[in-house]
Specification:
The structure holds 2 protein chains of 2 kinds.
Chain A lengths: L14 H13 L9 E7 L7 E3 L3 E8 L8 E7 L5 E2 L3 E4 L5 E8 L6 E10 L2 E10 L2 H12 L16 E3 L2 E2 L2 E2 L3 E2 L2 E2 L27 E6 L7 E8 L6 E4 L21 E4 L6 E8 L4 E6 L25 H4 L3 H6 L15 H7 L17 E2 L11 E5 L41 H10 L36 H7 L1 H12 L6 H4 L5 E5 L13 E6 L4 E5 L10 E2 L4 E9 L6 E6 L14 E2 L7 E4 L3 E9 L5 E7 L7 E8 L2 E2 L3 E2 L6 E6 L5 E8 L6 E6 L4 E8 L2 E6 L8 E8 L5 E10 L15 H9 L3 E2 L13 E2 L1 H8 L10
Helix pairs in contact in A: 10-11
Chain B lengths: L4 H30 L2 E6 L4 E2 L4 E9 L11 E7 L5 E8 L10 E6 L5 E8 L3 H7 L4 E10 L3 E2 L3 E9 L8 E4 L2 H29 L1
Parallel strand pairs in B: 1-11
Antiparallel strand pairs in B: 1-3, 2-9, 3-8, 4-7, 4-10, 5-8, 6-7
Classes of the chains: A mainly beta, B alpha+beta.
C-alpha cells in the first residue's frame, strides 16, 4: 500500500507526479518513503509521570512512520512557554532514519510546577507533549518515595526535633548546651565554644554548636527503610526575653536591655536554622536528601520551628526545604561518601543510644545510591577493601563495620565548602574522616581534652574491646592497626590511578562500585572452608564461633588440602594455624595466610597431636578445623602475658615447658594481662599474687581465656599473675608472669630496660602530642612530645643505630 | 631618537633588578658573616602543565661540612596551593643516614595544602656529622599538577630542625613567603612608576 498522507518539510509535488514518485520510493526504500510524524515523546528524568525537575535538560524524540528520504526530514519544534522550557526550532530526521532526538532545556527554581506544551509539526501533522516543569521538593519527594519503596502514609509527619536524641557540645567532659532535656544548663556559656571535645567535623567556626537533635525515622514493618531528622541549633545561641512586655521575643546578643523593663534575656534553644532529612533504603541503596537553607534563623520562619518539621511530600515542605536543585548543589555526597550516615564521634555520641546503638550506623554490606534529577550528577560512590595487612585475630578490619570510600576528586572548579579552600575538592574520607577517626589528625576545633593521647578520647576507632578496658593505648593501636590503616589509605589513593590489579577481586586493593555486594543473609555461606583428602571433601565449615567440633582423625603421614572461599563482601580474611609443639607453621607467616593465598597442601601430618586452623574475615566470627593425629593425647596449652603500654613482654607459657617471665613496669604504665588455655578442664583461674612469699591479694579471675587491666601496687613488690588449670590429662598446669615495679626511665618507653629503636619509634609516632605526667617520651619535659625528644633519646641508645 | 614606553619600562626593570641583585648579594654576604642556617625549596617557584609531576627539594644550607652543628632530626610542615597541586610522595635524603635502616621517617600527605615530613636519625653524633656536607637535601616532595600554573611553597607552623644532640636549630627560611610577595609587589610598583613616568613624558611631548 502506498502512503498517501501529506508530507511536509520538503518541496514536494502533487498529483500524478506524487503517485509516480511514491511508487519509486516504495520500490527503493533507501530513498525514503513518504513519512509522517506519528509520535512526539519526551523522556522525563526520574520523576514520575511527565514531570521534569527544572534546571535539567531532557531528551525529546520525534518518530516517523517511515524512513526519511534523502536530505532528511526537518520537523518543526515549539515550546508554549520558552521561559519555562526551550527547544530548538527544528530537529532533522536523517535520511534513512525514522526518528531523531532533541534536547529540552528547562528552567530551574520555578515556584511550584508549570505545565508547558512542546509541539512537533511535520506538514499538517502536529504532535504535542504536555511537560510539567518543577523544582519542587514535594515532586522530588514523591519520586523518591517510589525509589525508596515507601508511601506517603508511611511518613505522615510533622516531626518534632526534640523528639530526637540530643547532640550535646562538651568541653573537658562538661556539657555546655543551653539546656539539657529542656532544663536550663547553668554551665551554658553565652556563645558556643570555639573548641570542644567532639567537634562536628565541619570547618572552623561551625564545629562546636550544641543543643542539636538527631532522630531516627522508622516505618513499622519495613526494616529496609531508615530515615534521619537532624536539627542543628547552629550559628547563634539566641536568647529569649523573659517577662515584661517583650516576653518571648528573641534577644540574640543576650543584651537584657533589648528586652525592656521588667524583662531579662535568657538563653533559648528553640530555633533550628539547619534541618536535614535523609531517607534511605538499605536494600536497594536509594537515598534521598532534604535540606533547609543554612542561614541564620530569624525565629519566625516555618523552618525555624522545630516543633513541626513537615514530611517532605506535604505542601508545607515547600516553605521549609530547599528546591531539590539547591539541595543537590550542596553535594552532600562529598562528606557522606561512605553512606548516608556520618559516623563522627559527635554524632555517634547520640546515635549510639538509639536502637541498641545500631541506628543510623554504617552497614558495609548495604548499597548506597543517589539518584533523581540533579542528584544523579553526584559522583558514584566506590569502595575499597584490603587484605588484613598484619591484623591479628583480635584485630577488626575497618571494613568489617564500614564502607570506605575510594579517593574521588571533584571536577574543577571544586565545589566550595563553607569557604574553606581545598576542603571541597576531594571526597573527604581520605582527606579527613579516616584520620579523624583514628586520631592521626584532629578535626578543627578539637579541644585539648579531645586530643588527649592514650585514652579513648583520641583513639576512638575501633571501639574499646570490652568492659573495663578503655580502648587501646596508642602503642597497642599502632601495633595492631596502623599497618592496616596505611594499607587502606594507599588503596583509597589508587582510585585516582585505577589499575587492573585494584579492579580485580582478591587483589590487595580492591576498588568496587557500591551495590555489588550480596545482600546480608543472601543464600549460601558467606565464608566457607573445605578440607579434602585429595579425593573427597572430609569436612566443610561455615562461621561457627571458632568452634571446630570434634577433631578430625588423620592417619599419620597423610596430607590434606585446605581450600577457602568467601563471597565478595568478605575480603580481609586470614587463616591462623596452631601446630603441636615442634611442628613449624611454614609456609604461613606469623599473621597467618591471607584468604587468597591458602596453603595448597597441609601436612604430611607426622607428629602426633592436634592441628588447628582458624579462619576469620574482617573481624567477623570465624570457623575452625581441628585435626588430630593419634599417638599422643592433646597437650594442654596455657599462656599468659602482660602487655605494658601496648608492648607484649615475653610470654609465660607451658609450651615447650613451664616458664615464668618478668616485665618491668612503672605505676604510670597502662598494663593488661591476657591469658588463654586449651585442652584443659573448666577450672582455669588467674590469681593475683604479690611478693614476698607470693601472697595472694584476694583477687582472682576465672576462665580459660580473658584479659584484665591491672595497676601496679605502690610498694616495690613484684606483682604476679598465675594461670592455673587442670589439663585434659588430669594433671595440674600453672604459668605465671611477673610485673616488677621500676622507676620510669626516660626514653625507655616500653620499659624493657633498654633504650632502642622500639622506644624511638614510640616517641616519633607520637610527636607533637601533649605529654602525660611523668611521660618517658617527653625527655625535654616541655609537656610536648617532639622530634627533639626522639633524637635526644636516640643519642642514649644502648647499641649503635639503636639496634635492640 | 626618543625612548619608547616599552624601552623605558625595560630599562627601569633592569635597573631595579640590578639594585635587587646587589641587595641580595649584600644580604648573602651578611648571611655568610652570621653563618645563618637556611632552608629553601628547589626549584622555588616551578612552572608546570596540568598532569605533570613536580618534584621540589627541601634544601638545608649554611652548615659546616663534617662538623657541628649538623642535623639530627626535623619535623616540618610544607604548605602549597591545593588548587594547583596534589602531593603524591616524599623521598627522604640520605644525609641523616639511610632512610630505611638508619632513620625513622614519616610523611603525611592527606591534608590538602600541607605535607608533614619528619625524620630522626638513629646514628651516633660523630657518624652523623661525618656524613653531612654544608648543604644537602632533607627531602624531596613529589606533586602532580592539577592545572597549568606556577607553584610556591612555604613552611608553616613550628619549623623544627634539630642538631644531633636534639637542640633546636635557628633556621632562616628563604625566600620567606612574605619576601616573595614584597619582591613581586616591588617589581609591580617599579613597573607602574615607570609607566606613569613614560606617560608623563608622552604628555610633555604632546
Amino acid at each position: 500500500m502506498v502512503e498517501t498522507a501529506p508530507l511536509s518539510g520538503q518541496s514536494f509535488r502533487r498529483g500524478v507526479v506524487r503517485c509516480a514518485l511514491a511508487v519509486v520510493l516504495v520500490l527503493h526504500p533507501a530513498f525514503g518513503a513518504a513519512a509522517n510524524l506519528v509520535k512526539l515523546d519526551i523522556t522525563p528524568d526520574l520523576l514520575s509521570g511527565n514531570t521534569v525537575v527544572g534546571g535539567n535538560r531532557v531528551n525529546g524524540t520525534v518518530t516517523l512512520d517511515a524512513a526519511a528520504p534523502a536530505g532528511g526530514v526537518a520537523v518543526a519544534l515549539r515550546s508554549s512557554d520558552p521561559i519555562v522550557a526551550t527547544v530548538p526550532a527544528t530537529v532533522t530526521v536523517p535520511a534513512g532514519a525514522a526518528g531523531a532526538t532533541f534536547q529540552v532545556t528547562t528552567k530551574a527554581k520555578l515556584p511550584g510546577s508549570t505545565e508547558v506544551t512542546i509541539t512537533a509539526t511535520l506538514g499538517a501533522v502536529a504532535r504535542s507533549y504536555p511537560l510539567r516543569v518543577a523544582d519542587d521538593v514535594t515532586e522530588y519527594a514523591k519520586a523518591c518515595y517510589a525509589r525508596l519503596k515507601i508511601q506517603e502514609k508511611d511518613l505522615p509527619g510533622p516531626f518534632r526535633c526534640k523528639d530526637g536524641v540530643q547532640l550535646p557540645v562538651q568541653k573537658d567532659g562538661k556539657t555546655l548546651d543551653i539546656a539539657i532535656n529542656d532544663v536550663p544548663n547553668p554551665l551554658a556559656p553565652k556563645s558556643f565554644p570555639a573548641d570542644c571535645d567532639f567537634p562536628a567535623w565541619l570547618p572552623n567556626g561551625e564545629q562546636c554548636y550544641g543543643s542539636s537533635f538527631i532522630q531516627q525515622l522508622r516505618i513499622a514493618g519495613n526494616p529496609a527503610f531508615e530515615g534521619a531528622l537532624l536539627c542543628r541549633h547552629k550559628t547563634v545561641w539566641a536568647g529569649v526575653c523573659s517577662g515584661g512586655a517583650n516576653n518571648g521575643k528573641t534577644c540574640g546578643d543576650l543584651a537584657s536591655a533589648a528586652c525592656g523593663a521588667g524583662s531579662k534575656c535568657i538563653l533559648g534553644d528553640k530555633d533550628f536554622p539547619d534541618i536535614a532529612v535523609i531517607l534511605y533504603n538499605k536494600s536497594n541503596g536509594e537515598t534521598c536528601w532534604f535540606q533547609t537553607p543554612d542561614t541564620e534563623c530569624k525565629g519566625n520562619e516555618p523552618r525555624c520551628d522545630g516543633t513541626g518539621v513537615p514530611a517532605p511530600h506535604t505542601a508545607r515542605a515547600k516553605q521549609v526545604f530547599l528546591p531539590p536543585s539547591d539541595t543537590a548543589g550542596i553535594n552532600c555526597v562529598r562528606c557522606h561518601d561512605n553512606g548516608p550516615w556520618m559516623s563522627s564521634r559527635w554524632m555517634d555520641a547520640a546515635t549510639g543510644t538509639i536502637g541498641n546503638g545500631k541506628a543510623l550506623a554504617d552497614d558495609p554490606a548495604a548499597h548506597y545510591l543517589n539518584n533523581g534529577a540533579h542528584f544523579d550528577k553526584w559522583a558514584k560512590t566506590t569502595f575499597v577493601t584490603v587484605k588484613r595487612d598484619g591484623l591479628g585475630k583480635d584485630g577488626r578490619a575497618c571494613t568489617a563495620c564500614h564502607k570506605i570510600h575510594a579517593k574521588e576528586i571533584t571536577p574543577d572548579p571544586a565545589p566550595p565548602f563553607a569557604g574553606v579552600p581545598g576542603y571541597g575538592r576531594n571526597y573527604i574520607t581520605l582527606a579527613h574522616w579516616l584520620d579523624y577517626s583514628v586520631a592521626i589528625t584532629f578535626p578543627p576545633g578539637a579541644s585539648a581534652t579531645g586530643k588527649l593521647p592514650d585514652d579513648d578520647h583520641a583513639l576512638w576507632m575501633p571501639f574499646s574491646r570490652g568492659a573495663g578496658a578503655h580502648g587501646l593505648t596508642l602503642a597497642e593501636w599502632n601495633k595492631i592497626y596502623k599497618p592496616h590503616v596505611d594499607a587502606l589509605r594507599a588503596c583509597m589513593e589508587k582510585k585516582g590511578v585505577e589499575t587492573a590489579d585494584n579492579k580485580k577481586k582478591g587483589s590487595n586493593c580492591e576498588v568496587r562500585l557500591t551495590g555489588n555486594n550480596p545482600a546480608p543473609g543472601a543464600p549460601g555461606a558467606r565464608l566457607r572452608g573445605n578440607l579434602s583428602d585429595g579425593t573427597a571433601i572430609v569436612r566443610q565449615v561455615t562461621p561457627s564461633g571458632f568452634n571446630p567440633g570434634s577433631p578430625i582423625a588423620v592417619s599419620p603421614g597423610t596430607s590434606m588440602i585446605l581450600s577457602w572461599d568467601a563471597d565478595s563482601f568478605h575480603h580481609a580474611c586470614a587463616i591462623e594455624a596452631s601446630m603441636p609443639p615442634g611442628v613449624p607453621q611454614a609456609p604461613a607467616t606469623a599473621g597467618g595466610w591471607n584468604l587468597q593465598d591458602p596453603p595448597a597442601s597441609l601436612g604430611p601430618f607426622t607428629v602426633p597431636g592436634e592441628y588447628r586452623f582458624d579462619m576469620y574475615c574482617e573481624g567477623e566470627e570465624g570457623a575452625s578445623f581441628l585435626l588430630a593425629v593419634p599417638g599422643a593425647a592433646p597437650s594442654p596449652k596455657l599462656h599468659i602475658e602482660a602487655i605494658v603500654d601496648g608492648f607484649a613482654r615475653p610470654r609465660a607459657t607451658n609450651i615447650p615447658g613451664p616458664a615464668g617471665t618478668t616485665a618491668n613496669a612503672s605505676v604510670a604504665d597502662a598494663i593488661f594481662v591476657y591469658w588463654g588455655a586449651e585442652s584443659v578442664k573448666d577450672d582455669c583461674v588467674v590469681t593475683e599474687l604479690r611478693d614476698p612469699g607470693a601472697t595472694p591479694t584476694g583477687r582472682t579471675f576465672p576462665g580459660a581465656s580473658g584479659y584484665i587491666k591491672v595497676a601496679l601496687a605502690v610498694g616495690g613488690n613484684d606483682q604476679i599473675y598465675a594461670l592455673a588449670c587442670t589439663g585434659s590429662d588430669d594433671k595440674p598446669y600453672t604459668v605465671k608472669t611477673t610485673l616488677r615495679p621500676t622507676a620510669a626511665v626516660a626514653c625507655d618507653v616500653n620499659g624493657d630496660g633498654s633504650i632502642d629503636k622500639a622506644d624511638i619509634d614510640l616517641i616519633f609516632a607520637r610527636r607533637n602530642f601533649a605529654a602525660v605526667p611523668n611521660d618517658r617520651r617527653d625527655v625535654q619535659a616541655d609537656n610536648l612530645i617532639t622530634v627533639n625528644d626522639a633524637r635526644i633519646c636516640a643519642t642514649r641508645c644502648k647499641n649503635p643505630k639503636c639496634a635492640p | 631618537m626618543k625612548p619608547t614606553k616599552k624601552a623605558n619600562i625595560l630599562s627601569t626593570w633592569l635597573r631595579a633588578s640590578r639594585i635587587l641583585l646587589l641587595l641580595s648579594a649584600l644580604g648573602a654576604t651578611a648571611s655568610s658573616a652570621s653563618a645563618a642556617i637556611t632552608l629553601a625549596f628547589d626549584p622555588a617557584m616551578p612552572s608546570f602543565k596540568s598532569g605533570a609531576t613536580v618534584d621540589v627539594a627541601l634544601v638545608i644550607a649554611g652548615l659546616t661540612a663534617g662538623a657541628a652543628p649538623g642535623v639530627g632530626a626535623f619535623d616540618l610542615n610544607v604548605a602549597y596551593d591545593p588548587a594547583l597541586l596534589t602531593a603524591t610522595g616524599v623521598t627522604f635524603g640520605t644525609k641523616l643516614g639511610d632512610p630505611a635502616t638508619d632513620t625513622l621517617t614519616d610523611s603525611v600527605l592527606s591534608t590538602p595544602g600541607n605535607v608533614n615530613l619528619a625524620q630522626v636519625s638513629l646514628l651516633a653524633t660523630a657518624d652523623l656529622l661525618a656524613l653531612q656536607p654544608a648543604s644537602f637535601i632533607l627531602a624531596t616532595i613529589s606533586f602532580t599538577a592539577l592545572i597549568d600554573g606556577k607553584g610556591e611553597f612555604g613552611l608553616v607552623g613550628d619549623v623544627r630542625v634539630d642538631d644531633p644532640l636534639g637542640n633546636k636549630l635557628p633556621i632562616v627560611v628563604v625566600p620567606e613567603p612574605g619576601g616573595v610577595v614584597l619582591f613581586l609587589a616591588g617589581l609591580l610598583l617599579l613597573a607602574i612608576a615607570s609607566r606613569s613616568r613614560a606617560d608623563r613624558q608622552k604628555l610633555a611631548l604632546a
